[in-house]
What we know:
This protein is mainly beta. The protein has one domain. The chain is built from four helices and ten strands. The protein is globular.
Amino acid sequence: MIIQRLLLLVLPALCSAAVHAATDERWYDVEVYIFQNLKQPETMSEIWSVDPGSPDYGNTVTLNRTPTATAVPFQRIGSDEMQLFATIKRLEGAQGYRSLVHLGWRQPVSDREQAQAVQIGHRPQLDNGDDSADETASAASKGRSVEGTIKLSAGNYLHLDLDLLFSVPLPVAADADAAGTTAPLPRDVYRLTQHRRIKSNELNYFDHPMFGALVMVRPHEVPEVAPKLPPTSGFRKQPLAR
C-alpha cells in the first residue's frame, strides 16, 4: 500500500527514541495530518454503524492562536515549524487521497490521568463565534467535516489517543434540492478510535478504511529564562588594609 511505502521512506530518516519518565516537565510539538481515502476496496464488506457515537469532550482544550514570546501550553505552531510537507506532497501525488486537516501545536506532557485532549475540528452546536475551525474549512466547504480529540500523555513511554469522526454528506435528490429545505443533510459518519504507545520523532499512521491520520511528536526544548540577579547595594568594596 502507498501509505506503508511512504512510511518506509520516511522512517529511516528520522531519529526514534524511547521516552522515559522524568521529573522535569517535558514539552513536545505535535503535528497532525488527516486525509480521506478515496480508493475503497471493491471487496470491502464492512457494515458501518448508523450512529458511531461521539468523542468525550469533557476534558479537552482548544488551541491557542495568539503568538507569544514565551512557551504557552497548547499553542499553535506555524507552517515553518512543521515537517510533514514532503510526505503530504508524496501522498497527494499518489492520487486517491484528499487532504482534510493539517495542523500542529506545542504542549507539555502529563500522565494519562491528568492529560488533556486537544479538540480538533468544528462542532456547529458549540459554535461560539471563534475561528477554532479554520483547520477544517476546506473540508467543511465541500460538505466533509472532521472533529474529535487527540491526547498526548506519558508514563515510562509516550502514549497517543485518537478519537476522530469523519462525516460525508449523502447525495441529495433533485426534488429535495429544488425545494430548498433547511433540514440537516443526511450524512455518513465514520469513527476512528485508537490508543498507541509511540516514540518521539517517529511518524505514526492511524488507519481506517475511509480516512486516516499521520501524527508526529517531536521533543521541544523550552528556552531557560536567565535568573534575575539581585540589585547591587550602594556600598563600594574597600581595599584591604596592609
